[in-house]
Amino acid sequence: MLNQRMEDALNEQHNAELYSGYLYLAMSAWFQSVNLSGFAAWMRVQAQEELVHAMKFYDYIHERGGGVTLKTIDGPPSEWESPLAAFEGAYAHEQKVTGMINDLVDLAREEHDHATEIFLQWFVTEQVEEEDSANEVVQKIKLMGEASGGLFMLDRELGQRTFAPPAASPA
Ligand code: FEO
């Protein structure tokens, strides 16, 4: 059974993961509006992954006998100055989420909730990948600089990302 403090914190993270999905969907819509459909596809896959993250919290709270409370999801921005600004925003957001996951681990330790600490390990590892994949695109955009055609080549590359639905957990 989760204690109230842990349950509240996990519900907050569930909301934060949904916000992440909202943020990346907003970025996807913006990229689409400026005709960068590969960038838009990348962000759309990212939004789908965030929903998977959110549902991991949702399922875990239930498994531990807790209650899921759905709170309002904040509205994300709707436009960015440039592709670089959007991806820098994504990278900064992932760094913030890493901090939130680390705070949850600290709380689980404080509350001697070993099961939650183990559950959170997946997210600790995932955040390394999340930061890396956003930063990789930031660096590629910077490297590209003013090179003509660079943006379109990168758009084609990013458009190849596909969403891999999580494998069904064993019964
Ligand atoms: Fe759910 Fe992008 O971290």
Architecture overview:
The protein has helices at residues 4-33, 37-63, 83-110, 114-144, 150-158. The protein has 171 residues and is mostly helical. It has a single domain, classed as Ferritin, core subunit, four-helix bundle (Ferritin). The protein starts with a helix and ends in a 13-residue tail after the last helix. The model has no long low-confidence stretch (mean pLDDT 95). Bound molecules: MU-OXO-diiron. The site of MU-OXO-diiron (FEO) has 7 residues, from helix 1, helix 2 and helix 3.
Q: In total, how many domains does the architecture comprise?
A: 1
What's the β-strand tally? 0
Query: What is the SS-derived class?
Result: mainly alpha
CATH architecture: Up-down Bundle
Low-confidence parts lasting 5 or more residues at pLDDT below 50? none
Q: What is the fourth-level CATH superfamily?
A: Ferritin, core subunit, four-helix bundle
> What multimeric state do the chains show?
single chain
Order of helix and strand elements from N to C terminus: HHHHH
Cα(first) to Cα(last) distance is 21 Å
The total count of helices amounts to: 5
Which small-molecule species are bound to the chains here?
Answer: MU-OXO-diiron
CATH class: Mainly Alpha
Radius of gyration: 17 Å
Percentage of helical residues? over 70%
Query: What shape does the CA trace take?
Result: elongated
